[in-house]
Amino acid sequence: MAEGGRFFASAEDGHRHLLALQGMHPTRIEPFLDLAESYVLLNRQRKTSRDLLRGRTLINLFFEDSTRTRTSFELAGKRLGADVINMSVATSSVNKGETLLDTAATLNAMRTDLLVVRHAQSGAPALLAQKVEASVINAGDGTHEHPTQALLDALTIRRRCGRLSGLTVAICGDIAHSRVARSNIHLLTAMGSQVRVIGPPTLIPAEVERLGVSVFHDMALGLRDVDVVMMLRLQRERMASGLVPSAREFFRFFGLDMERLALAKPGALVMHPGPMNRGVEIDSAVADHGQSVIAEQVEMGVAVRMAVLDRLSRGRNS
Ligand code: ASP
C-alpha cells in the first residue's frame, strides 16, 4: 500500500485521490478542515446550491452497506451541483461476476469525474485509483482506512475544543477491525493529540503502539481525564468467531455508561461514527446525553465531503 499522504490532494498540485490519511502532514490537514468549516456555515445558511461541480459526474460505488457516508456524499455532490449516481452493487454486474478492473473500465468509458468507493477489501480503492481517470475517494476499505470519517471527527473536535493539539482522545472497543480507528489514529497523532486505545486484548491489533498510541485493557484506567471518548461498533462482519464472548459481557467490561463517562474530564465529548449498537458499546443514556456530539458528527460529514469534492475536483479538466 502506498504511503497515504501521497494520495490526498487537489488536482492543482498533482494529486487526485483521497485514499488514506497515513503520512499526511498537518499543514495539509488544517487548510482542508478550514475549507470544510466554510461549508458548515454555508450549509447552515441553507444557501447550499453552488455551481462548482456543474457538469461533473460523481458515482457512489458502494460494495458494503452504508447510511451516513453514502447519503452525505450524495448530498455533498448535489449541493455542489454535480450529477450524482448511486451504483447499487446489489443490482449491478458486479454480482454477475464482473471483476473490479472491468468495472473500472466501464466507469472510465462513462467519463466519471469523482468516484466514491467503499469495499470490504483493504486496498480496493487504491487499486481502482490506478485504473480510472476519475479522482477516487476511499469511503472505507476493509479494516484499512476511512479518511473522510476521521476528517469529520477532527472537524467536530476542533469546533468543540478549539484545537486538535494537546488533547487526549480515547478510542474504545473493536480497534482491530476498525478503519475508523486507524484513520483517526493517523490524523490525531499527526495533529499532536495523545491517543489511547482501550479494548480487550482480542480486539487490539498487535504492535498498535507503533502507531504512537498507548494501550489500555481497562476502561476505568484508560478513560481517566480524557478530553474525548470515541466509541466503536463491534464489527462482527469482519470478526472471526470467539473474539468476544457475548454482547452483554462486552458491555459489562467495555461499554460506555454514565458512571464510566464520569472518569473522563468534565464535559468530555462522546463520539461514535455510527451505526451505534445501544447497549453493546454505548448506553442509551450516554448516546443521548448533552456531552454526545454524535448528531454533530453527521452534520460535519456533509461539510467535510463537500470540501473533499471541492479540493479534488479543482483543476480537473472538464
Ligand atoms: N460506519 C463506519 C465504517 O464504515 C463504522 C462502522 O461501520 O461501525 O467503518
Question: In brief, what are we looking at here?
Answer:
Helices cover 36% and strands 14% of the residues. By secondary structure, the protein is an alpha/beta fold.
What does this structure look like?
This protein has 318 residues and is α/β, with parallel strands linked by helices. Helix content is 36%, strand content 14%. The chain has helices spanning 26-44, 68-79, 100-109, 124-131, 147-161, 179-190, 219-222, 247-254, 258-261, 284-287, 294-313; strands spanning 57-62, 83-88, 114-119, 135-141, 168-172, 194-198, 214-216, 228-231, 269-271. The protein has a 5-stranded parallel β-sheet. Strands 2-1-3-4 form a 4-stranded parallel β-sheet, with helices on both faces. Strand 5, helix 6 (179-190) and strand 6 form a beta-alpha-beta unit. It is globular and about 55 Å long. It starts with 25 loop residues before the first helix and ends in a 5-residue tail after the last helix. Residues 1-14 have low confidence and may be disordered. Aspartic acid is lined by residues 140, 146, 179-180, 233, 235, 273-274.
